[in-house]
Automatic annotation (TrEMBL):
The keyword Heme applies. It comes from the Eukaryota. Heme binds at residue 441. It holds the Pfam family p450. Pathway: Secondary metabolite biosynthesis. SUPFAM superfamilies: Cytochrome P450 (SSF48264). Residues 467-487 are annotated as: Disordered. This is Cytochrome P450. The lineage of its organism: Eukaryota, Fungi, Dikarya, Basidiomycota, Agaricomycotina. GO terms for molecular function: heme binding; iron ion binding; monooxygenase activity; oxidoreductase activity, acting on paired donors, with incorporation or reduction of molecular oxygen. Its cofactor is heme. Keywords: Heme, Iron, Metal-binding, Monooxygenase, Oxidoreductase.
Length: 487
């Protein structure tokens, strides 16, 4: 211990700015459990003010010798995660996700397995985009769409839990697996709900910080040990200690989420009713399904699983942003489309405000305020600031949304910011909601197209307004997001 202190005192690298740290444990005591993005953004302004007038867009934290760098601007994220992607494309290890078997492409380390998976990127891009548009535009399927809307509206009328929202689920599973949700008691949707809620709990900072502790698996075994009290930590690093089950017990359920869609498509193919399902297209390239290598089957399952979560989370949360918006998008649709039909994707260029609304919703209300962490694979220096090998890199998507160098009046929800002048501010589109560099979400085009089509159809057929509180005042639904790894 003495030698450790001597080494630390001997030479201190020029890290990026950050809040004051405690001896030995660093910032472990002050890293917040909730609203991390807001705290990190405030720290960037406060502790970086001596570097630049607006504050540093990169802050450094340390916990028990583990380094964390937060990127709080579009410029910093592009400089490191895009332009230096060979250094910053890895993922940090998160023990609890390994324990439950949540090891799809999103969390996979950057290496040979990840590169093998790349051959399936087209599964999540061009093919998925075409099939999504086919499902949403095919006039023979309009009845299915309206049935889903009826289910959606009925769920809103009795909404007591956000997990009862099945509308987006039915659209996404229909595209990927051919599975249609016809009631709130749908078994597969219940399975997805269960997995999602567990993933939210496991992905909380308390779970991720287990990997900082010397013996994380032993900590899970002896969950009654309360480090929170002994260290006076502001957040509950032992949040997993209150779980009623060992995370390993959820592994079969997580495995089922990946296996079920594959099994269902195989049955549909045997019955000759697979149509244009994405999984069926992949399997059809082999002479027989028995000739599909097991390794490739596994990659397909993981790719589809990651794609589902990306689309589901985005569509699900985005619809909530439509509540109480101005009527300009609906007026534009009424003017261009009229009342005799629903919007089609070919109408997109004629509906610029509706398109801008989608981009502004994703900017101002990102699904994950802190992007899935990256990890540096070698030492690096950025603007004179040292970033050690093995540093966890957190891209603050919410901080980028509030980046004054990129957006005018960034805290204001204003779709017109993306419209060309003179109708808008002609701001550049920033895709930070979908990740960066080699880890960018390959299904982002599929997600954007799905969100656009659903938004246009919802605005055409529904008026979404906020409910009222006990005093009769309008009470918009709170847009609360979990800091978790779920896609």
């Amino acid at each position: 211990m003495a030698s450790f202190i001597v080494v630390k005192a001997k030479k201190k690298p020029n890290y990026s700015p950050g809040p004051p740290a405690d001896p030995l444990i660093g910032h472990l005591r002050v890293i917040p459990f909730e609203n991390q993005d807001a705290t990190f953004h405030a720290w960037a302004k406060e502790y970086g003010k001596f570097r630049t007038f607006l504050g540093s867009d990169v802050i450094h934290l340390e916990a028990l010798g583990n380094h964390i760098v937060v990127l709080d601007s579009v410029e910093a994220a592009n400089d490191l995660l895009e332009r230096r992607s060979p250094i910053y494309s890895d993922r940090p290890h998160i023990l609890v996700f390994d324990m439950v078997g949540m090891n799809d492409i999103v969390l996979m380390p950057y290496g040979e397995a990840f590169r093998k998976y790349q051959k399936f990127r087209s599964l999540q891009t061009k093919k998925a985009r075409a099939l999504a548009l086919n499902l949403l535009e095919n006039k023979n399927r309009h009845e299915m769409f309206f049935n889903m809307q009826v289910l959606y509206v009925s769920s809103l009328l009795t909404l007591s839990d956000r997990r009862e929202f099945r509308f987006a689920t039915s659209v996404i599973t229909g595209i990927l697996y051919g599975h249609q949700v016809v009631s709130k008691d749908d078994e597969y949707t219940k399975l997805i709900d269960h997995q999602s809620m567990i993933a939210v709990n496991l992905g909380q900072p308390g779970g991720a910080l287990l990997d900082i502790l010397p013996f994380p698996e032993a900590f899970l075994k002896y969950r009654e040990i309360d480090l929170t009290h002994s260290l006076s930590i502001q957040y509950n690093i032992c949040s997993l200690g209150s779980l009623e089950q060992d995370p390993r017990e959820w592994r079969p359920m997580f495995r089922r989420v990946y296996d079920y869609p594959y099994e269902q498509v195989e049955k549909k193919m045997d019955g000759g009713v697979a149509e244009d399902l994405i999984l069926a297209r992949v399997l059809a390239k082999f002479s027989t399904r028995n000739s599909v290598p097991e390794e490739e089957i596994e990659y397909v399952k993981l790719a589809i699983g990651a794609m589902y979560r990306a689309a589901m989370e985005t569509v699900w949360s985005f619809v909530l942003t439509l509540v109480g918006i101005d009527k300009r998008a609906q007026e534009e649709i009424d003017l261009v489309i009229g009342s005799e039909r629903l919007p089609e994707f070919e109408d997109k260029d004629s509906l610029p405000y509706a398109t801008a609304l989608v981009h502004e919703g994703l900017r101002r209300h990102p699904v994950i305020p802190l992007a899935i962490p990256h990890r540096s694979v070698q030492d690096d220096v950025y603007k004179g600031m040292f970033i050690p090998k093995g540093t966890t890199i957190l891209a603050s998507v919410m901080g980028m949304a509030l980046d004054e160098k990129t957006h005018k009046n960034p805290s204001v929800f204003s779709p017109s910011r993306f419209l060309p002048k003179p109708d808008g501010d002609d701001e550049p589109l920033v895709g930070s909601a979908f990740g960066f560099g080699r880890r960018i979400c390959p299904g982002r085009h599929f997600v954007l197209d799905s969100v656009w089509m659903l938004t246009a159809k919802i605005l055409t057929t529904l008026d979404l307004s906020a409910g009222r509180d006990e005093n009769g005042n309008l009470a918009p639904p709170p847009l609360e997001f979990s800091h978790t790894v779920s896609r």
